[in-house]
Amino acid sequence: xxxxxxxxxxxxxxxxxxxxxxxxxxxxxxxxxxxxxxxxxxxxxxxxxxxxxxxxxxxxxxxxxxxxxxxxxxxxxxxxxxxxxxxxxxxxxxxxxxxxxxxxxxxxxxxxxxxxxxxxxxxxxxxxxxxxxxxxxxxxxxxxxxxxxxxxxxxxxxxxxxxxxxxxxxxxxxxxxxxxxxxxxxxxxxxxxxxxxxxxxxxxxxxxxxxxxxxxxxxxxxxxxxxxxxxxxxxxxxxxxxxxxxxxxxxxxxxxxxxxxxxxxxxxxxxxxxxxxxxxxxxxxxxxxxxxxxxxxxxxxxxxxxxxxxxxxxxxxxxxxxxxxxxxxxxxxxxxxxxxxxxxxxxxxxxxxxxxxxxxxxxxxxxxxxxxxxxxxxxxxxxxxxxxxxxxxxxxxxxxxxxxxxxxxxxxxxxxxxxxxxxxxxxxxxxxxxxxxxxxxxxxxxxxxxxxxxxxxxxxxxxxxxxxxxxxxxxxxxxxxxxxxxxxxxxxxxxxxxxxxxxxxxxxxxxxxxxxxxxxxxxxxxxxxxxxxxxxxxxxxxxxxxxxxxxxxxxxxxxxxxxxxxxxxxxxxxxx
Length: 576
Prior knowledge:
Blueprint: E1 3-5, H1 6-9, E2 16-21, H2 32-42, E3 47-52, E4 69-71, E5 83-87, E6 93-97, E7 101-106, E8 109-123, E9 130-137, E10 140-150, E11 158-165, E12 172-175, E13 178-180, E14 182-190, E15 198-202, E16 205-206, E17 215-224, E18 227-228, E19 231-232, E20 234-238, E21 241-247, E22 252-257, E23 260-264, E24 267-273, E25 282-291, E26 294-298, E27 301-306, E28 309-318, E29 321-325, E30 328-331, E31 344-353, E32 358-362, E33 365-368, H3 370-374, E34 381-389, E35 401-404, E36 406-409, E37 416-422, E38 428-431, H4 433-439, E39 445-446, E40 508-513, E41 516-533, E42 538-552, E43 559-566, E44 570-575
């Protein structure tokens, strides 16, 4: 999907001034730092495009770039007078240095970097705490998009993108970046006492299969500590590809500590703890620790999580709402060279749930095949594990803890169980699917092979049509429309209605203008136009029969998906 960014596609009343950067010829500035310093000193009254040209050389002998490249709040900027840094077409630029960070955004506002996949940000410093891009203090309305970022892996922390954000009104958007060779790919923290705002982490590729280039601790880590009058920071973690996170200290695909938001349509694979020690050897595909928050997690694919204690997803919630829908978790292991023994694994571990929390798990596939592929005995390996749950939440089928319409498959494992439960009195209980369903007075837990067509991208070979509709989630991981009566369990939906997906054959544009979202295509469209927020909920809709349509929109700024269904089906993502 093409990210259509409002900074370029919206219709503005004011002009956009273009300032060029390059050492040769009659450019406005010789370096990026010089351009930013000039804007900082003089202020702006229009939107500014800083265009890096083919004449730009960061290590020029006379006009050498200054690192870190520092961005501050520029007088006159607001939502309509923003500053954008981008590259001229068909050029590649590498910004390489040993510094605290390459880009430092300190109290920066209404500023964007669009790398177009051709801006390389490389920090060679071996000091701890370094970053490729750092956002610090009261940054607001920031976009970091399309950059290739590398740092050095050190004994202490290093970050591809480090966002230490405090108060802000507008979203922080970190999208379409390629990040490798770091302890943390993306690390976001917010400790302000102001009302929350959106943190959007979308479409990034985080990881590298080459030795020495791995992310070693966590692909995406979000620590949102802000809470004001019951309003927490909202995060959106969507459409990211996180792979080859390999290290000896708690390697994890996605970690969330507090904050409310959605985690959707992410691919997480090869999360490996390569420590040789048997104790404290843990790895998580996803780790969610929430207090007083609401987290919705759907359409994610997780496979190849390897450690002595390997968990596809682990949650611990206090006074929180947790919802897990249409996820596919395959605990198989194809990185056995990193491990000597495997003690326990669980596709999903519910590790703590109090009386103030609510937990919903529907339409998920949990396939634990760890022991078979590894070739060694596995003790107490399960599809779903439950421990430290309040006694009155068991049995589980109630309005506080509802687990239905899931596939649990561990039949071929030695000492493998579909469900593993440790109650508060430390009595271990093991359940096959029949016992589990009987305990919950439920018939929608299934013991069946989901038949994945690969061990990485977890497509299913054929439809199971055993799911239950979830309001607002209308498409699967691949963008296929969900059956509205009997959707498939798992992140992949087998197409039931015979509609042709014409996404590759249609040039679709969508943007916000004057209270409407305008949709324009180069081919005739016939169907319904839905605008969906990142929680999967429809916020507005209209009909389209022709080459264009307008959909009334009165929502707040953020990330939305425009979906057209009917005789033609296509979707595009936009920022507003």
